[in-house]
Amino acid sequence: MANDKKLIKCRLLGKDSYGTVYMAAPQPSHTNYSNTSTASQLVAVKSVPYLENDMHYLSLKLEGHILSELQGSPEIITCFGDDFSVENGTKFYNLLLEFAPEGTLSNIIELKPEVAD
Predict the structure, then answer these.
(1) Per-residue DSSP letter, 69
(2) Any idea what the Cα angle at residue 93 is, between residues 88 and 97, rounded to 5°?
(3) What is the distance between the alpha carbons of residues 4 and 102, in angstroms, rounded to a whole number?
(4) What's the pTM value of the predicted model, to 2 decimals?
């Protein structure tokens, strides 16, 4: 599930014990995308520090695998792939996800309780 996109993390969207999620956009100078239909779109990048056999890394890797298995379902966020990055000397494992401008399912339910019914 490798991906060669070059992304810029633009804004922090959320953080919990299983990763940090950023809104990201393609760097203007990079036009080689493994999925050209997403080239002009924002994406969500879920990141964890990479430590082999660490539960956070393994959990995020499993999440990416599950999302890939569910690819094509209109109710499930699309996973565009994964990659590794180095930021300030720390290696990160990144899951590249469809950006949901409405927020999380929890956000939607809070705003529109009838969705939960």
Answers:
(1) H
(2) 115
(3) 27
(4) 0.76
By the 10 Å C-beta count (0-12 exposed, 13-18 middle, 19+ buried), 58 is classed as: middle
> From CA 23, how far away is CA 25, in angstroms rounded?
7
Token representation of residue 40: 């002009």
Distance CA 88, CA 82 (A): 20
> pLDDT in tens for each of the 117 residues of the chain?
444 558 889 999 999 888 999 999 988 765 554 444 444 579 999 999 999 999 999 999 999 999 999 999 988 999 999 999 999 999 999 999 999 887 666 666 777 766 555
Answer yes or no: are the C-beta atoms of 92 and 84 closer than 8 Å: yes
Distance CA 68, CA 81 (A): 8
What is the C-alpha separation between 114 and 67, in angstroms, rounded?
Answer: 26
CA distance 82 to 115: 31
